[in-house]
Amino acid sequence: MRNISTIFLSIAMPLALLMTASCVSRSIPTSSTISQASSNSVQESQVSDINSKLLTHSSNSTNIETDYLIGPSDLIEVKVLESEKLATTERVNANGYINLSLIDNVQVSGLTPIRAEEKIEMLLKDGGYINNPHVSIFVLERKSNTVSVLGYVNEPGNYELIGKVTLLDALAFAKGLDKEAGTTVYIARETGKRQENIVVDLDDLFEKTGPFDQVNPVISSGDKIYVPESSHVFIDGAVGRPGSYPIDGGETTLSQAIAMAGGLSSYADGGDVSLIRYMDGRKEVVTVDLDSIREGATQDPTLNEKDAIVVGTSGFKSFFYGLSINAFGFGGGYRPSSR
Asked: Quick one: pLDDT at residue 245?
């Protein structure tokens, strides 16, 4: 019996010590864990600081009906005090017109409700219909004049543009940056048949010494704002999957990043690749030839956080395939895969 007890203790004691050691080792943070926690803490502190500045510098305080600009697809109610028969509810057509009794088509797009009232009053008076008309307009549904704020913000979505709205105003509409957000913001803008890509470094923006309204871009109707995740680069244009991708700073190359984004599309121009980056607070755009990189004639540049890559399209190929590129992948409803 004593031998059995001795054997049991000789087995149980080492097991108990092993389990205790395992528990202790799990509770002791490693250097990599401490480093990661420290990095996350710095990132969250940086985002918190930017969000505080957003509240300070957000200037949009004109959220009133009189500053709204009527646009296509808006539904408006028109009333004429002197004649109930002229009252109507009309949706603004694609060209910005509404159809009214007596004066037919009236262009109201781009006008505030007050200016539209004055215009209709003038047309009724000049047409000899009413000597001193009093017109009132109320916007029942607003379908135009919106901006999309997407990516790593607290409340992504579409927001109305009422009065003058800046980039910081739009980010404030979305309740600021998410804790995992980077500090580079991308704006996709349609200008006629062209697409304009605007890159804004928020850290650099807050440090500008010039007039703040000159470095804080004014947002236009239809703009799409995207905030990527920290430690990511953004890849746009003629690639398989435009979007935000993680990089290993100083290790990931441009061609590797394009491969992560699904490679070049069939209508891409490998000789027209733009690498957009910030160097000492200045934006630098470098044109890269992927074909030259593949042949070993040109060095494959390594990427840094906040870099952006835009792959151009071949005019002939784009025409041939009848395709169009959606700036920053917003048209496809891109969302970060980790969210």
From this structure: 84
The answer to whether the Cα torsion of 189, 192, 195, 197 is positive or negative is negative
Q: What pLDDT, on the 0 to 100 scale, is given for residue 267?
A: 86
What is the structure's pLDDT at 178?
Answer: 87
pLDDT at 258: 93
Sign, CA torsion 155/156/159/163 = positive
Residue ranges and CATH numbers for the domains of the chain are: 72-141 (3.30.1950.10), 145-230 (3.10.560.10), 233-326 (3.10.560.10)
Tokens of 98: 């509404």
Longest dimension (CA), the chain: 121
DSSP structure string for 3-28: HHHHHHHHHHHHHHHHHHHHHHHHHS
Q: Is the pTM of this model over 0.85?
A: no
**234-267 residues labelled b (16+ CB within 10 A) or e (exposed):** bbbbbbeebbbbbbeeeebebebbbebbeebbeb
Beta bridge partners of 135: 80
Q: Please tell me the predicted confidence (pLDDT) of residue 306.
A: 74
Query: Cα-flanking dihedrals φ and ψ of residue 2, to 5°?
Result: -65, -35
At 4, give phi and psi (nearest 5°): -65, -45
One-letter amino acid for residue 302 of the chain: T
Strands (DSSP E) contained in 81-183 are: 83-91, 97-100, 104-107, 135-141, 146-151, 157-160
What is residue 6's predicted lDDT score, i.e. its pLDDT?
52
Q: For the chain, which ranges sit under pLDDT 50?
A: 7, 9, 15-39, 42, 61-64, 317, 319-339
Task: Determine the 3-state secondary structure of 148 from DSSP.
Answer: strand
Residue 308 CB burial class (10 angstroms; 0-12, 13-18, ≥19): buried
Quick one: pLDDT at residue 138?
92
Instruction: Return d(Cα 253, Cα 309) in angstroms, integer.
Output: 11
Q: How many helices (H) and strands (E) does the chain have?
A: 9, 15
